[in-house]
Amino acid sequence: MRLGIDLDGVVADFNTGWTRLYNAEFGAELASESITAWKAPAQLPHFGSMSAFWKWARTCGPEGVSLFRTLDPYPGALEALQRLSRRHRIVIITSKPRYAVHDTYAWIAEHRLPTTDVHIVDDKSSIACDVYLEDADHNLVRLARERPEAIVCRFVRPWNGPHEGIVDVADWDEFELVVERLEAEL
What we know:
Layout: E1 2-5, H1 14-26, H2 50-57, H3 77-85, E2 89-94, H4 101-110, E3 117-120, E4 131-134, H5 137-146, E5 151-155, E6 167-169, H6 172-185
């Protein structure tokens, strides 16, 4: 099967990454666990808008790399992708600002994601897969609407909510079980 996997918020720990850099630059003590809204950075006085946050994210990393180059993988994500790649095709489907494209490819290479199929697109439903794993509400809704033949899985996070017809998974182990069940049905 083709498994369409999102990066930020699913494989890469976006909130821990940006809060770590934010705290270092601004002397703050913002805990990544306190981030419960999709557009939380816009609420911070140093930004005030998501466009100001994205401007900062362009060069906030060491030696001026973008935020996306500095993220750590979630525990268990890389190992689960390795296991899944033994029987299935891993398709990375992510949305990024244009400035983060090279850093995203470098991140994928550094962490040795088991894929040769990477798509950096705004419309994730434009990439056909059998199963999707996503954390953004707007992408989940669009995938379910535009790809009714596929199984869409919501990686449960504080910033997203349940949706009818979408399978909730709390961690990588649960996602692997969903894929195993589907595989058994084939």
